[in-house]
Each structure stands twice: as C-alpha cells, then as structure tokens.
Design brief:
Cathepsin D, subunit A, domain 1; 2 domains; 50% helix; alpha+beta; 280 residues
C-alpha cells in the first residue's frame, strides 16, 4: 500500500487543529497557541508511525487509544480527573464526527476508498486540505451572514435627524435605543455625542469647553442629569434644543444630554419614548 507522507502530515495537522478548535468553542476557554501547534505536530508524528502496525489490528487499536490519551493529557493543566474526562470525551466525540464528515465528503466526490486507506491515510488526495478549505468557506459564509444581519438590524433602528437651535442647524444619524429611558423633570432625554455638539455649535472653543471655562449662556435650559452606564452613574450636561425633526416629525424644546465621546455609526441616541410618539 502506497502512502504519501505529505498527505499524512497535512491531513493529521488539519484534523487535529480542527478538533482542538471545536473543543475550545464547546468549553468556551482558549488553549495556549503553542500547545495547540505542538499537539498537532505530535499527532502527525504518531500518524507517521501508525502504518508500521497495520498488520497487527490489536496493537494498532491500542496505539490509537494511547495516543489519544496522551494528546488530551498534554492539552492543558487539569484541575481534576473529571476535567480531563470531559476533554477526552469531547476529543473522541469530535474525532468521530470529523471522521464521519470526511467520509461524507469522499462519498459526495464519488472517490473510491477502503477502510484501511482512510485509517492509514493512503488516499490519492489531501483530505485534510479539502476539509480546511471547506471549513474556511463555511466560516466566511457565517461571518458574512452575521455582518449582513447586524447591518440590517442596526439600519432598522437608525433615523435621519435634523437639529435646529438659535439659527444653527445640522443633520445627523440617530439610533433608537430601547434602553435609553433617561428623564429630566419629566422630559425625555436623548444622548448627543461631543462630535455632533461641536458640529452644531461651531462657535464653541473646544479647549475652553473641555476645561469648563466656556460660557454656556448660548445653551437653553441647562441642567445636569444622571446617566448610568456599565455599573456606574455620572452627571452629564443637558440642555434644550429648539427643534428636533425625526423622520419629518418635529419635537420642540427637545432635551439632549452631552457625552464626551463619539459613537461609531451615529451621532445621537434617541429616547425610546420619542420613537413611540413618532410611530403613533
């Protein structure tokens, strides 16, 4: 039986790496990168030695079991025997699942094979390379779907907003956030980025403003409101804007609170009740 050493190396390295990655995804813990690659190399070495036992079925089975035990043993530092048993169970399970997937690929491609050709890696093509390519394509597909889905989901909650205040005006993109329930004296409070603030009030000296030396007389209804974020509450400057147009509907004397940061794809976070009113 002819065995192509390059295919043995590629198939084993890819398969071992995929199995370890599947274990990582299941457990939710990262395994050291150096350990992963070393174990893949050891797996390749063990696989190269396997054909020498092809005439001794019992020894070959024993050898495979011992190899799997050793590989899982060096996968990480285990806190208990139960921890090791869990990783070993996952290793064996994903080995069988991946093997079944390889058989499905061979069957789909209508390739002639025997049981020994799969066990001893004597196929006429690098199955591991094909599996790796297929895995990358599937991952690319899922990543693309996730990006498109998130973009679509975010776009459904975006609004074009026009702000008018004391002769100044500007357009911006606003995000509807159902979690924004900030109120100030019974008024809904939307959250404005510092970038939008500077765009609307171009006369403001940003240096003086950040040093709190800027005269704020040009702002109407100045008050400080509490905004909670990630377990902490901070006071933020809030003020009233003369007119705010959301999808064509005008909100007069709309209150906004200023945060000293910019957002990624929008400039304003609308209060949840504004959208309910706009929808009604």
């Amino acid at each position: 039986m002819e065995i192509i050493i390059e295919y043995v190396i590629l198939d084993n390295y890819v398969m071992n790496y995929l199995i370890i990655r599947m274990i990582e995804s299941t457990i939710g813990r990262k395994i050291q990168s150096i350990r992963k690659h070393l174990l893949c190399v050891f797996g390749v070495i063990f696989a190269i030695l396997l054909p020498f036992l092809s005439n001794y079925n019992f020894l070959m089975i024993t050898y495979k079991v011992l190899v799997s035990v050793i590989l899982v043993l060096f996968l990480k530092k285990y806190k208990s025997i139960k921890d090791y048993i869990l990783y070993y169970f996952l290793f064996v399970t994903y080995t069988f699942l991946l093997g079944g997937g390889c058989l499905a690929i061979i069957y789909f491609l209508n390739i002639e094979y025997t049981a020994s050709s799969i066990i001893l890696y004597s196929l006429d093509f690098p199955l591991g390379g094909f599996v790796l390519l297929l895995g990358l394509l599937v991952k690319l597909l899922f990543v693309s779907i996730k990006i498109i889905k998130n973009k679509f989901k975010t776009s459904c909650y975006k609004y074009e907003v026009l702000l008018n205040d004391d002769g100044w005006s500007c357009k911006c993109t606003a995000l509807f956030d159902s979690g924004n329930g900030v109120m100030c004296d019974g008024q809904c409070v939307s959250i404005m980025s510092i970038g939008l603030f500077m765009k609307l009030y171009k006369q403001v000296d940003i240096t003086k403003f950040l040093l709190q030396k800027e005269n704020l007389d040009f702002l109407r209804g100045v008050k400080y409101v509490d905004i909670s974020s990630v377990g902490e509450t901070k006071k933020h400057l809030s003020f009233v804007i003369e007119k705010m147009y959301v999808s064509g509907q005008c909100f007069e004397n709309a209150r906004v609170a200023l945060v000293m940061k910019n957002f990624d794809e929008f400039d304003l976070i609308l209060h949840r009740d504004l959208i309910i009113k706009e929808a009604v």
